[in-house]
Amino acid sequence: MKQSGIFITFEGMDGSGKTTQMHRLADRLRAAGRTVLVTAEPGGPPIARAIRRIILDAANTEMSSVAEVLLYFASRAQNVDQWIRPALERGEVVLSDRFTDSSVVYQGVGRGLGVATILDLDRIACRGLKPDLTILVDVDPEPSLARARARNAAEPHPETRLDDESMDFHRRVHAAYHALAAAEPGRIKIIDGRAPIEDIERSVWEVVAPHV
Which long-range contacts (CB under 8 A, 24 or more apart) does 157-166 make? Predict the structure, then answer.
């Protein structure tokens, strides 16, 4: 296996199963001898996780769309500087549950802030860092949202602020993901998230193996 750093992100609707698949891939890569950093957005190092709690707290209903997107990129900038770039420089595989693509579809399209605005913020926060490969675990918005809401209902501190948005919002996000994949087919690979977990895992590995 090549020993150069590689940045792989997982994208998709909440409840798509992307997080499960990311951890399964991490286990497989570690078993093959690679050093793997697993992170999540918003989140990662402690400062970024503190920002996450503000963003996703269901009590923060008064948060404006602009404040929201700036907080996402504040968290992302800390994650990039403290965790992601150093790991890549060490030659590790970095797996991230979401990255700037999520901001494009959720805030740029879903919130209507515009894709150009998101890319301007990305240039400031990430300074050219882009995933080498993105796995889009694709499921329809209705079942994925139902799964996410059921999961959050069982959490002691649920992070439901985005899940509480309307179904129209989530349909816009879903369509925006497909538009991204159509625009960047070399980087963004769509995996059918409706298949059994083991089948999805095999499909993910078929996409990832040539890169690692």
Answer: 158/58, 159/52, 159/53, 159/56, 159/57, 159/58, 160/56, 160/58, 161/55, 161/56, 161/57, 161/58, 161/60, 161/61, 161/63, 162/14, 162/56, 162/106, 163/14, 164/58, 165/110
